[in-house]
Amino acid sequence: MRLHDYPASGEALPESNAILIYLAEGTELLPDDPATRAQVMRWLFYEQGEIIPGIAGLRFRLQTGRLDPDSPAAEGRRAAGAAVLEVLDGHLREHDFLAGEAGFDLDDDYPAVRDWIARVEATPGHMNDLQPYPPNTRVGVGESIYG
Fold first, then answer.
1. pLDDT value at position 2?
2. Which domain holds residue 14?
3. Buried b (16+ CB within 10 A) or exposed e, 99-135
4. How many whole angstroms separate alpha carbon 52 and alpha carbon 80?
5. Cα 9 vs. chain centroid, distance in angstroms?
6. Taking the CB of residue 88, how many other CB atoms lie within 10 A of it?
7. Considering the domain boundaries, does residue 146 fall inside one?
8. What sign does the dihedral 129-56-15-46 (CA atoms) show?
9. What pLDDT is attached to residue 147?
10. For the packed helices 111-121 and 72-92, what is the interaxial angle rounded to 10 degrees?
11. By the 8 A CB rule, do 19 and 11 touch?
């Protein structure tokens, strides 16, 4: 299957990880071996269920002024993010592949995660699309379902 073959029905594919799987199909990024492929899926599910709320959600809320950095809500998300980074760091101590910008010290506390990020950034074709949030994401300026 190639990108231009989808979708035959003209329907959209809105979920980010479904899009990633679709784009990786037939490439070295999505293994044919069922057990290895299941590990790819495992980390995609983990990203949505744990990394997004604990790290990306905290980053978004801090950078857009939705949370005070010292608030209990920020501390709770930071604790969840630290737990996520522990899991990632433990896995990456034993594996080469699988970020962290929400008040986490990757250099001292999560060296395997830091090294993994460097390997990902060194991958041919890597594109860093993490840009600062635009002004319309500030509280009271625009509308968001994320509060």
1. 46
2. 1-30
3. bbebbbebeeebebbbebbeeeeeeeeeeeeeeeeee
4. 10
5. 29
6. 23
7. no
8. positive
9. 52
10. 70
11. no
Q: What is the mean pLDDT of each run of 10 residues along the chain (147 residues)?
A: 55 86 85 87 92 91 91 95 94 72 67 89 81 73 63
Considering the domain boundaries, does residue 64 fall inside one? yes
- Amino acid 23: pLDDT: 87
> What is the predicted pLDDT for the residue at 49?
93
Does residue 145 lie within any of the structural domains? no
**What 3-state DSSP class applies to 131?**
coil
Q: How many domains does the chain have?
A: 2
Would you state the structure tokens that stand for residue 136, as one six-digit string? Answer: 């319309």
pTM of the model: 0.69
Same domain flag for 114 and 132: yes
